[in-house]
Amino acid sequence: MSEDKISLKHGAGGTAMMKLVKEVVLKEITQKNQGSIGLDELDDGATIEVGDKTLVFTTDSHTINPIFFPGGDIGRLAIAGTVNDLAVMGGKPIAMACAIVFREGFLVDDFRKICKSIEATAREVEVSTVTGDTKVVERDALDEVIITTTGVGLANDLKTDSQLTPGDSIIVTGTIGDHETAILSHREGIKIKGEIKSDVAPIWKTIEAALKAGRVSAMKDPTRGGIAGALNELASKSNVGITLNEDDIPISNPVRNIDEMLGIDPLVLTNEGKAIIGVNGEDCDSVLEAVKKTKYGKNAQVIGEVTEEHPGKVALKTSVGGQRLVRATIGAPAPRIC
């Protein structure tokens, strides 16, 4: 690597983070995987084969600031984020682990609120938090709290990032940019007409409905790096092109207004309760209808299609009739967003 120190951009889910992972993690950690998907695939999780069962295994750390925000808190974020990583690989969540590191002086009442949120979020998808750990560090070693969650899921129909095929339709399960815009506006004290809340939610039941309704090819939850990062990853790993229609991408008016005010592209913003679903074109209508009937899929839209053109790249047909490439970001508009 040309850089000798890790910066905030290396944790933002963009190309800088991927470069760090490939040049350090994949070169230094030996992999002996018992399933078809391991560390080097850099998917949302890994698989473990146990007899005739395929388990999906994933882990994630959460450093968001502030820990309580419009629409959620770090506890809901921790469970939802891990559930969603399992879900987009086709894994029904079956068990969760949770490790928490506190700063000395952290309020017990706040810890209780976080625990209640963890329980309520896990209960939405009927999964239990079965084990965990707590640690406490000195006041100046951490500003508040960090939560790491690990999840195990059971996949009857495993999905990976490399399974998109030309002719597939691309569905997004709801409005984009809600989470990061809510955090940014809350941090900066920006007030506009209309409520902005994080979309943080566990979306297994939405994914389950899609899987039952038609031939789903590949899925991704567009967290760090937004739908731009997620779609570029799908296109690259599947060696296909993706063409999006700007007018079809759902964005709420409050989010659009703040993003325009701040000069931020909503395509690169973190989402914490959405999925991108690639589905066989013939089954698109049935899958979309099934998704729209779920709690977290009411605003789902078809936003594009998979093509043989421009393999590995994502193109956007703009509202004014032009076309531009959608690139993955190097970093992110703001640190500590999830």
From TrEMBL:
Q: Name one GO biological process term.
A: protein maturation
The record's Pfam families line, in alphabetical order, gives: AIRS (PF00586), AIRS_C (PF02769)
> Which positions fall inside the PurM-like N-terminal domain?
43-154
Tell me where on the tree of life, at the top rank, the source sits. Archaea
Tell me which positions the record assigns to the signal sequence.
none
User: Which SUPFAM superfamilies does this one have?
Assistant: PurM C-terminal domain-like, PurM N-terminal domain-like
Q: What are the residue boundaries of the PurM-like C-terminal domain, all occurrences included?
A: 166-315
Family under the similarity heading: Belongs to the HypE family.
The name on file for this protein is Hydrogenase expression protein
> What is the source species?
candidate division MSBL1 archaeon SCGC-AAA261C02
